[in-house]
Design brief:
InterPro entries: ATPase_AFG1-like (IPR005654), P-loop_NTPase (IPR027417). GO terms for molecular function: ATP binding; ATP hydrolysis activity. This is AFG1 like ATPase b. With 416 residues, the protein is an alpha/beta fold. It folds into 2 domains: 12-214, P-loop containing nucleotide triphosphate hydrolases (Rossmann fold, 3-Layer(aba) Sandwich), CATH 3.40.50; 234-412, no CATH class. It contains 15 helices and 11 strands. Strands 6-11-10-9-8-7 form a 6-stranded mixed sheet, sandwiched between helices. Strands 2-3-4-1-5 form a 5-stranded parallel sheet.
Length: 416
């Protein structure tokens, strides 16, 4: 029989890899995943002969072929969205592709915007001018990549919401193709957020430029068929739990070629000090990591330096601790993405850590009064748990996977 054409063979590569993962038992056959894989294979085939070099960011686009539509894949936690996107990214044959967590991408965007603003000459009296840093940043991105793969697309920050419309208007105009995963359908992005009306045109643009697929098999695969790591989670109420963590830290640090002591990281020019570290291991408290105004950039820097992080005294996270809970979800998102191993000492089992009721909202009410927004309190996700529910579900699912032997084995071979 005749061999398949090279382009067709390439387009089958992602399907073949998925088939092999099913055959060897690494993943389960899933008709919902199979449908998304077929769509990704079609896009892979289209991208074989595509480059956004043909799409200048300026004018005169009428005579050029339109860029291919991307994919926006959403669904419940643990259904395989990230796995499928990573499989697609590894199979696409182009050097101009980028796979990145959405939080990391937005941090990079804000850094680029800041850098461009800093490079401007100082304003002088009587010589005021306006400067748009977003468009040149979009040109930078489009010059670097024609395929952008986002993991965990979520918008909860008003600064991100205000940037996204203009940024992606320029990126799409430049022919950048987007493949993204999310727990939320496009219409629910930044739901009930501040100034959401300015964000709505981005949602319309996203639905125009991407095929939308829901991946919901009703199964959280992170919870199935995986042996737990022997010593990755401890309850504070259990006798000897603290001593067990001390012994595990001593065991792991014995292999390091460093002394135990504090280490200071530099994050965007700011010092962030962890009090107890040894080589690539950090032994921290929850308050040290989440009780301070730290964010994604801080946790990414930690992930760059440490492959194992102990987190002691994690409380049950009620609404009175929602700031700490948000930081904890951001921390776990970044540690999970970078394959950092985590040892937890917590007040409750993973699936009982997040408590959606309880705690006072006096500070919220006071801030709303100051902003003149009291009447809208029930509609603003900044002051409700709606966004957090999705983030907490994802965090619980990821924490459960992070306790498995397979995750810890991946962490043993993590490239630093």
């Amino acid at each position: 029989s005749r061999a398949p054409a090279p382009q067709l063979a390439l387009s089958r590569r992602i399907v073949g890899r998925y088939d092999r993962l099913v055959e060897c038992g690494t993943v389960r056959e899933d008709v919902h995943q199979r449908h998304v894989i077929q769509q990704l294979a079609e896009l892979q085939h289209t991208l074989k002969n595509y480059s956004n070099d043909m799409h200048p960011p300026k004018e005169k686009l009428e005579s050029l072929p339109p860029p291919p539509k991307g994919l926006y894949i959403y669904g419940d936690v643990g259904t395989g969205k990230t796995m499928l996107m990573d499989l697609f990214h590894s199979c696409v044959v182009t050097p101009r592709k980028k796979r990145v967590h959405f939080n990391t991408f937005m941090l990079d965007i804000h850094k680029r915007i800041h850098r461009r603003k800093q490079s401007l000459p100082k304003r002088t009296l009587g010589k005021l001018f306006t400067y748009d840093p977003i468009s040149p940043v979009a040109v930078e991105i489009s010059n670097e990549t024609c395929l952008l793969c986002f993991d965990e697309f979520q918008v909860s920050d008003v600064a991100d919401a205000l940037v996204l419309k203009q940024l992606f208007q320029a990126l799409f105009r430049s022919g950048v193709v987007l493949v993204a995963t999310s727990n939320r359908p496009p219409d629910d992005l930044y739901k009930n957020g501040l100034q959401r009306d300015t964000f709505l045109p981005f949602i319309d643009m996203l639905k125009e430029r991407c095929h939308i697929f829901r991946l919901d098999s009703g199964t959280d695969y992170r919870r199935l068929g995986k042996a737990g790591a022997a010593r990755a989670f401890y309850l504070t109420r259990n006798a000897g739990a603290e001593a067990a963590l001390d012994a595990l830290f001593e065991e792991l640090s014995f292999r390091q070629k460093s002394d135990t002591g504090p280490q200071t990281l530099s994050v965007l020019g700011r010092p962030v000090t962890l009090q107890k570290t040894c080589g690539s291991i950090a032994d921290c408290t929850f308050d040290e990591l989440c009780g301070k105004p730290l964010g994604a950039s801080d946790y990414l820097e930690m992930a760059r330096h440490f492959d194992t992080v102990f987190i002691r005294n994690v409380p049950r996270l009620t609404r009175s601790l929602k700031d700490q809970a948000r930081r904890f979800t951001t921390l776990i998102d970044n540690f999970y993405d970078k394959k950092v191993r985590v040892v937890l000492l917590a007040a409750a089992p993973v699936d009982q850590l997040f408590v959606l009721a309880g705690g006072e909202d006096e500070l919220d009410r006071q801030l709303l009064d100051d902003l003149g927004l009291s009447a809208a309190a029930e509609q603003l996700s900044l002051f409700t748990a709606e966004e957090e529910i999705f983030a907490f579900q994802r965090t619980v699912s990821r924490l459960e996977e992070m306790q498995t032997e397979s995750y810890w084995s991946d962490g043993d071979h993590r490239l630093r």
